[in-house]
Amino acid sequence: MTGAQPSNSGRRRFFARAAAAAGLVLAPGVVLLTTKAKAAATGPRWGLLIDLNKCPIDCSECVTACNDENGLKGHGRPLTDAQWIRKVDVRDPASKREWSVPVMCQHCEHPPCVDVCPTGASFQRDDGIVLVDKHICIGCRYCMMACPYKARSFIHEDLTDQKPHAPRGKGTVESCTLCVHRIDAGGQPACVERCQGIATGAMTFGDLNDPDSAIARRVATYATRRIRDDLGLAPGVYYQGL
Q1: How far apart are CA 126 and CA 109, in angstroms?
Q2: Are 206 and 216 in contact (CB under 8 A)?
Q3: CA neighbor of 192 nearest in space, from 184, 182, 220
């Protein structure tokens, strides 16, 4: 019969296929994108292991190293609202034990900051490192709300004396880059280098996909935990002794 309208079930199938193909629009400028499952990992998956048994409460060398490396200073003073790594005091009410836990971007395998970014400024490299493209970040701060680790900061101030390897910009969001410029040159993050060099050696950096790497061997041998592992984000930062 001409002019017949599609059935309700037909319309549901149509909209389901359209949403799967193009993403579901949640609000103006916000799209929940669908992604294909990743192929089996063949390259490196960079990560950190932090042994809290070797991390003194009064040591903040990792924080200082990060600030120095990435130029996290403004107007001659350290910024208080932009820390790419911070020490968080934790206390077990049962045992009374206390820790000072280094917390930074956890470089999740399934990063929620990337999922909610409307412009693609938050993105993940094939090696697992999560970054922010300052050229297309619009400062909406959706990623800050989505991050369960409070690992991202918004830049409110004018900036001077920036490091060429760590571009920053007023009105954009930033977080730990795992010192990607060092990694791409064959090195390791500044916090790890400082910890191993003049501090306690609590930090280990390496390829989690390489079973022969020091970090992969330690994760396989010792009991480790990841912060809020129950969320299913698969962080790339492991903690021993937590």
Answers
A1: 10
A2: yes
A3: 182
pLDDT digits (tens, 9 = 90+) for 75-116: 444 444 578 999 998 888 888 888 889 999 999 999 999 999
27 vs 143: CA distance, rounded Å: 16
Write the secondary structure of 64-129 as one string of H (helix), E (strand) and C (coil): HHHHHHHCCEECCEECCCCCCEEEEEEECCCCCCEEEEEEECCCCCCCHHHHHCCCCCEEECCCCC
Q: How far is it, in rounded angstroms, from Cα 66 to Cα 82? A: 11
Pairing of strands 73-74, 153-154: unpaired
Q: Is the pTM of this model over 0.70?
A: yes
CATH number for the domain running over 58-194: 3.30.70.20
Structure tokens at 140: 């909406």
* Residue 183: half-sphere exposure toward Cβ, Cα within 13 Å: 19
Contact 206, 84 (CB under 8 A): no
Q: Is the dihedral of CA 200, 225, 122, 147 positive or negative?
A: negative
CA separation for the pair 241, 137 (Å, rounded) = 37
